[in-house]
Design a protein that fits this description.
heterodimer; A: mainly alpha; ABC transporter involved in vitamin B12 uptake, BtuC; two-stranded antiparallel sheet; 11 helices; 2 strands; globular; B: 305 residues; alpha/beta; Rossmann fold; 4-stranded parallel β-sheet; 3-stranded antiparallel β-sheet
Chain lengths: 287, 305
Amino acid sequence: MQALYAQLLVGLINGSFYALLSLGLAVIFGMLNIINFAHGALYMMGAFCAYFLLNVAGIGYWPALIIAPIAVGIFGMILERTMLQWLSGLDHLYGLLLTFGLALIVQGVFQNYFGSSGLPYAIPDELKGGMNLGFMFLPIYRGWVVIFSLVICLLTWYLIERTRLGAYLRAATENPTLVRAFGINVPRMITLTYGLGVGLAALAGVLSAPINQVRPLMGADLIIVVFAVVVIGGMGSIMGSIITGFALGVIEGLTKYFYPEASNTVVFVLMVLVLLVKPSGLTGRAA
Amino acid sequence: MLNSGVALAVNNVVKEKNAVMINTGAATSDLTNAQCSPNTIHWVYDTYMLANSTGQALVKAGGDTWYFVTADYAFGHALERDTAAVVVKSGGKVIGTVRHPLNSSDFSSFLLQAQASKAKIIGMANAGGDTTNTIKQASEFGIVAGGQKLAGLLLFINDVHALGLKVAQGLNFTETFYWDLNDGTRAFSKRFSERMKNKAMPSMVQAGVYSGLIHYFKTIDAMGGNPHDGAKVVAKMKEAPTDDPLFGKGTIRADGRKLHPAYLFEVKKPSESKGPWDYYKLVGTTPADQAFRPLSESACPLVKK
């Protein structure tokens, strides 16, 4: 039984990353209608950004938690301005191909310069060590990841679903022309939203740098699972992607305990089941 | 070819097309055992040799109960099988195994299971990113501090570089090449590193590619040109002794196994390291004739008994 508690907690930790990443994807899809395949590459850039800040400029983990998402977010906004914005109104396939191509280019460039093996990034001193919970030894850093990402997820949800700015955004997706008529700069809002989604990915990257290796392909390995999370939760649903992210982390954790060989596939099996029963995802609006 | 599953498949194609395969990256010892081929030479290392050297040393040092964290594919299975055999033969016991999918990023679940097993040694029958993540996360979850010891069954110098000495210090594992072994390896590694963007030192796999090709070209030269007959070239390569500054003098056996010594290394403490890439201490050497699977145990049909 003790082992089971430990596995549940470990699942929540992984779920935090799924939630943060799928949240960014959901925001981007919900507001821009773009299937952002570059998300994994941007997540990786967040981790690399933290690595550079530390090793080149001597800036530690805490400032990196703010600087990296902003820096990568700006990079994302440039992408949106120069490329993605021309795809609005076209079939999803174009956005998918463009972002997938961008992801391959970014990952290729990083691989060329840093090789495919990982670079070390130490856990900040304040979060080193662990505590004995009785049923398991919980590294403090992992506990921090769960709490911090939960807070960020809820803040994002609040921003989009409960504030005036969020209301503008949602209105702009429904009917951009009408919102423009009220004097609101819709293209700028869309650029900022993309920046926000990308910033969330970069934030997840910084959070994961001390746990996983900082590697050019760290995002490529994760992004497929995260897409499955988004599909299960319902494309574009903010709360759906948060809850599904955490839930799938836990389900995956339990699979690792009961039948470890299937832990890589369980998410996709679930995706198939959900799509068969409810094609718009668990919380998605019907198309 | 770094993947054993791929190597075994290519092994068949190469035989069918009568080409030459000099394998340096994949580890499964099946390449020179049951699945050996007249067209294949296995150069740098294999699962039998890794298991033999590292496994024996650790059991002798008191690590007599083992729990395996194994990558769930041909290589992991072979490494686990070969190591478990050595552990049992040396008087140890295997108390459990967990198999994880290839290229996992999270090992916490598997490590908690290994921790609960109370085994003295946690044998990592995996490679690359899987191994470095296992080591890193084991230190996070206080596994080494709790008294269990990690055994890296296959680690490369790039992995140690990625982990940093702080996390990797004290790990024991086996390699057949290290850049700082002698003048020959240092000279080659210096030339290699100068050409690398990140100034990395060569791993044993990269050194093996160089060494294997040198022997191949020497053989082609001696044959007076390429006869485009893979089996013939490989047969000739087996006849001639190998000699290069990287692995020293060696031979290739009838089953396709290239023989050279195996070195047991220990990763230095950060205070012992004198500069970049100064990572290993040599703690033991197994001579070439004892490092690999003896022909008497071979299931390879090419071996005449």
